[in-house]
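**Protein of interest**
===
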Amino acid sequence: MNHKSGLLIAIIALLTACSPHEKAPPYRETPECHAWRTMMTAPMPPDAHNRLKADCEKSVRHGDRIRPD
């Protein structure tokens, strides 16, 4: 084994050992955000669209992975 392949193996082993092994928590969406997301491209008045978006933002607790943008 030459030095380049040994160095490559060492780098791959280090990256693998230091990578996070946790799975990401499952993506959960509130019903309000689901309604807003499904109606994003629907032809509807701007005030109704803004109301759906506001309902989604209110339903999301601070710190959740769900973002209405």
In short: DSSP finds three helices and no strands in the chain. The CA atoms of residues 10 and 61 lie 43 Å apart.
